[in-house]
Amino acid sequence: MIYQIIPQFIIYIFAIFVSFYLPGFLLISFLKIKSKLTCILLSHVLGIVMWGIQGYIFGYLNMRWGTYLYIGLACLSCIIYQRHSLVKVYAIFPKIIFTNKITAILISIGIITQLLPVVGSGFHSDAGMRFFGNNAYDGLTHLGFIQSIIDHFPPVEPGSYDIPLRNYHYFSDLVIAELSRIWRIPITLLLFQFIPLLVSFLTGIAGYLLVRSFGGSKKMGNWIVFLSYFAGDGAYIFMLILHKTFGFYTPAIDNGAMQFLNMPNAMAKMIFFAGLITLQYFISSNKKIWGIFSVLFLSPIIGFKVYFGIFSVIGFSFLIVWRLISQFVKSSENNNVRRLVSSLRKELFSFFLLILFVGISLAIYLPSNSSSGGLSYYPLEWPKSFLGAGSIDLKEWWLKKQVYDSTKNYIGIFILDFTAVIIALISIHGTRLLGFFPNPKLLKFLGWEKVLFLVPGLLLFHFLGLYTLQASGGFNVFNFFIVGTVILSLFTSFTLGQISESKKLLAKVFLIVFIVLTIPRVVHEIAYNIENYKTHDDSHLFSNDELLALKYVDVYAPKNAIVQSHPNNEKDNNVGYLSFFSKRLTYLSGVTFLETRNQK
Question: What is the predicted pLDDT for the residue at 414?
């Protein structure tokens, strides 16, 4: 196994330096950032964003050879203009690790925790190729998307040869596809081993630097790192109270250990953290160049994960409108029309940024999401799923609900619904729900502009998660909660940072209890994955015979051949693995995933 990795990993390190870091560093160098670590972080993340954008643009222009030109120009420009900075830039890491030991330890353990669920999948052994847990479903689907993007652009549904890839945020797959296409690195290694290592590392650093850029302490920075890697849900608390059972029987919407079972979400979270850093510099300095870079980071997120993108659009819109209102209030003009015109003139650049933000987002969103089904009003479906049989199973709530509905006891119905919402929020967010508690010091710490960027979207997303379902995907509205969890982690880290400054015994006891209540789900996931690697109980093995047959198709079938598995092949019918292994489009496969994305 190790011999499969080392040569490819060496190529990968060189590839991300040339493909991600150099183009990103070339642009970030215009910002004159004093912190070298921030410069390194933003260079890598912006490089990933730009890598996806160039693949998107050159793909639609039918000029995919332009990627080689992109790399060549970036390398040449860096050698000419930034060669001295490039030599010195990575020398900062030993010093940073030495002076931030707790942060370094948290990130190191966190990376191991997040890689554990995915790192064992996709290796070719004597028995065949095995995929563990959700990697045998969503993971295989993403492999099909990536292979399709390598072979076709605009992307085509790998499970239905004549349908374009619609209603899907595929930029994370596009980033991996472009890296594999140019550098010939196997996509299984990229999806399950290499990219998770990079994204997990950058996300930890981004969370820490985000808090520090806001003016938070090192302790506050360490808390957001802790929450990013180790926070989990709190449904087990209700199982203990109601059923005297310790276990995890409810849907695991979000926890630190499961990040890379959803690569689009993991990449979007990393970019979102980095984008908030640039937004903070824009707010504090009011320099136009920081505004442009904020748009450059945040607007393409919609291609990585639609929900993070929509949140960013909402937040940026509130921010710009607030600036216009502030100018309107400050204006000395007596006539309201003149005051409005004067305000627009003073904030013309801000208005331009908003137009640019929306324009880039729509340019990425519309081509692949024009057939999205939208949302429908279904009140409290997620809370009800938590309270149902197989989850928390609160029978008393259901019995009272039937009685109150039949007698039109509206006060009782309100109390029951409120109880369901509270149980759902605790089940979803766990200890991160601390971020919901009013904290005047937090509002002062953030300032009105960041409050308006973060809070309206946070409230709206929770309403949508609680009261709607998707026309395609149904309960996939859980992604609204996931975005909210990221914001709550930021708010919670501020409160914990304040408590950490106290020397009182009660404060120390509270922090210990907080940690103990936070980590059970992640500890459970670690134990589960280790056991699964031993027993292979929750895994799927593709035998060498089947792999050999599909390799034969890959080598000898025409490139435009359409392939189809046997009708009784239930695995391909549900997931659609044939397209990845044969590197051909299939006639009809992965029906389950086609239906969840509103594809007929």
Answer: 93
